[in-house]
């Protein structure tokens, strides 16, 4: 058992110093979350690689984004299992950070979209998949008392990233060109991510905050393995709702600039500015919904998040059109916030329902929902545009799925029955 009184973090008592891990994780997530600014890159890449003979389609410009998120999702559970097997968080995070930077830097040399599928989609996505869960796992172990808030603030950086990076990337593209923008961002990520990774560590075995005791007999005091987790209705319910929330939010993120320019009829600069505005809600939704998860429980909080998706989808179907800027801002703020909510609800629910010991590995499995949602989001949005001529048709799908998700959240997303032999 650890001597809690003698545990120091950043030269302070652990109860105060542990917030340094949250800060480091939040800044790391600001770098990792640049993927949410992808809509700023799409049109410049489409113009760069289209030829008189071959025009790059909307679906093609979404593929690097979809591949990035899919590979990100595949690597998450692998990274979680490596942590579970004893690899130190700092070591694994440095390795992943080098891969992230390599993907961005290599994208500078792209000669066509296929190159970006490899450099940005596969390599950068793999690096983010390795790194992303590590600050979350660190925060979860240092904050067993307020998991939702700590995780929500840690991942706030990922959601709020586009608030900064959409503006930075847009200006780099304008002044240097889209390919050099990849290089400059990649070099910055190389330095920032590696340095921040070096501070990450888990608390000593048995450490807990002074005066805090887990509730005896609660589901979170029993540790489920990933296999056991996915044999519960709670695990399946959480996973299905996460797919729906991710699909809806990631679709909105991928098409924000396009919808703004093509349906609402704003110019490119305004559209990029709106991406930064929406990022406030994606980032802010994480600590807010983390707090709500602690206060209301995951099921009710999940239903509330999906209700935002339903409201935004219905309003876009009924009223979106040229000049409807306020409506657009409201609906897409809801969709970005709803996505952000799931990056707090899902890890908090995973640790609360299935225990802290295996939370990194368990969340890696639950997080596969995010990758499925990413691929489905790109296909739905791309096909709505390429086949039907408008992104509006995609909102019929998200509205229907949101209704299904609310039902699942209220019936299945609850603490599992006592662990038994699975």
Give a summary of the structure in a few sentences.
By secondary structure, this protein is mainly α. 76% of the residues lie in helices and 1% in strands. Strand 1 (8-9) and strand 2 (12-13) form a beta hairpin.
Blueprint of the fold:
Elements: E1 8-9, E2 12-13, H1 14-17, H2 19-32, H3 38-49, H4 58-84, H5 89-107, H6 113-142, H7 147-176, H8 178-197, H9 226-229, H10 233-262, H11 268-296, H12 298-319, H13 325-354, H14 359-366, H15 368-388, H16 394-412
Antiparallel strand pairs: 1-2
Please report the distance between the alpha carbons of the first and last residues.
30 Å
The shape, in one word, is: globular
* Percent of residues in beta strands: under 5%
Low-confidence stretches: none
Strand order of the largest sheet: 1-2
CATH architecture type: Up-down Bundle
Taking the sheet with the most strands, its summary is: 2 strands, antiparallel
Structural class: mainly alpha
SS element count, helices? 16
């Amino acid at each position: 058992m650890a001597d809690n009184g003698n545990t120091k973090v950043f030269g302070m008592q652990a109860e105060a110093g542990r917030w340094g891990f949250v800060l480091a994780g939040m800044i790391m997530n600001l770098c990792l979350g640049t993927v949410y600014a992808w809509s700023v890159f799409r049109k410049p890449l489409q113009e760069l690689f289209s030829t008189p003979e071959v025009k790059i389609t909307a679906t093609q410009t979404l593929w690097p984004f979809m591949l990035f998120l899919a590979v990100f999702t595949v690597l998450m559970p692998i990274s979680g299992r490596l942590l579970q097997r004893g690899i130190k968080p700092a070591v694994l995070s440095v390795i992943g950070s080098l891969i992230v930077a390599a993907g961005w830097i290599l994208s500078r040399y792209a000669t066509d979209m296929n190159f970006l599928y490899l450099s940005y989609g596969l390599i950068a996505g793999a690096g983010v998949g390795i790194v992303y869960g590590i600050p979350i796992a660190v925060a979860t172990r240092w904050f067993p008392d307020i998991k939702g808030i700590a995780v929500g603030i840690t991942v706030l950086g990922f959601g709020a990233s586009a608030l900064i990076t959409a503006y930075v990337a847009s200006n780099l593209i304008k002044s240097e060109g889209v390919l050099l923008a990849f290089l400059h961002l990649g070099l910055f990520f190389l330095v920032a991510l590696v340095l921040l990774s070096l501070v990450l560590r888990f608390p000593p075995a048995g450490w807990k905050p002074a005066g805090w005791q887990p509730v005896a007999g609660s589901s979170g005091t029993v540790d489920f393995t990933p296999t056991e987790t996915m044999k519960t209705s709670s695990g399946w319910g959480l996973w299905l709702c996460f797919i729906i929330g991710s699909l809806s939010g990631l679709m909105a993120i991928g098409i924000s600039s396009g919808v703004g320019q093509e349906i609402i009829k704003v110019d490119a600069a305004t559209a990029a500015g709106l991406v930064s505005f929406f990022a406030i809600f994606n980032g802010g939704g994480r600590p807010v919904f983390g707090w709500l998860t602690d206060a209301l429980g995951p099921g009710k909080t999940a239903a509330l998040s999906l209700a935002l998706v339903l409201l935004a989808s219905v309003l876009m179907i009924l009223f979106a059109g040229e000049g409807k800027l306020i409506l657009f801002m409201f609906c897409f703020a809801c969709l970005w916030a709803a996505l952000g909510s799931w990056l707090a609800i899902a890890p908090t629910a995973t640790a609360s329902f299935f225990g802290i010991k295996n939370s990194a590995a368990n969340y890696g499995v639950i997080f596969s929902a995010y990758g499925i949602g990413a691929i489905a989001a790109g296909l739905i949005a791309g096909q709505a545009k390429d086949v039907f001529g408008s992104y509006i048709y995609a909102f019929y799908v998200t509205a229907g799925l949101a209704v299904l998700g609310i039902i699942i959240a209220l019936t299945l997303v609850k603490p599992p029955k006592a662990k038994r032999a699975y």
